Input
Amino acid sequence: MADLKKIYEAIGPGDAHVLRGLLEVEGIDAVIRGDDMVPLQGGSLFHIETRPSVWVLDDDAVRTARAVEIAEEYAAGRRAPAVSAGAGGWRCRACGETIEDQFTACWNCGAERGSRS
Ligand SMILES: [Zn+2]
Output
């Protein structure tokens, strides 16, 4: 069996799941560890690091490198949250889909971009 490699330490469960979603889009299976409480034997329960981390299967160097790259890009974006504002695209008011900026109509439901209310 291949080993797992830790690529990202999240600030919370939602954070970890967002990154896992980004990895799945790229065809990379990711595992989230530490977002559920697992009591350890030996009484160290109160010292467990509860921040979840994201791991990938480390059996393909190219894929692992790509996963690390995605995690780094994601971490950079998290520190400077400019997502969904202006240049990053727009959100369809009819169905809520996020559309890239160069399109003037929603690819999902066909609604015109329209003006922001
Ligand atoms: Zn739409």
